[in-house]
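Practice problem: predict the structure.
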Amino acid sequence: MKYRKHDVAEKLLRDFLDDEWNDALAALYGELELPDPLEPLAVAEKWLRARREDPVLLVSCARLSMRAELYGKARSYLETSLMIRRDPVTYQLLGTLLDELGEKEHAARVLHDGLAMAIGRKANLPRSSCVARRFAPTAVAGAPERCCWFHAPRRRIFASASGAYSKESKCRRSGVVPVAARHS
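Answer:
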């Protein structure tokens, strides 16, 4: 494949994988670039019937599905692979796919989870009032209101036009009460 002879590589990989399974070669099979991307996908899906819970093969099928522009199928393969075995590359592929599909917030969460998995822990951010005060939402005409600096918009008003918070203005998810609400 180094010399862009993907058709020759596909036949060699297919013959070898039919005889003896190898995860590294199965991963390489997913990176084939052929004029008709449905052919290698059909072969990989045939292998998948026998190896249903092989995360490497699922990622290869996802890559081939993306090349064939079958994005729903690719997403399903990636999500299934992550359920079986968490892998930073799979998180990155799924996050990129979700971003391309316009699911920006979900993509960001997936990429965040993949990064946390890759480094071995989630970031230890303080849940103090200074974070809530610094990033607290402000009322801007026409802008959607947010329940806190991180979470998605919510229907009821969080901050008044003057920027004052009501007594009940805490995030419904995190429970963070901004400093302005604590001291009023």
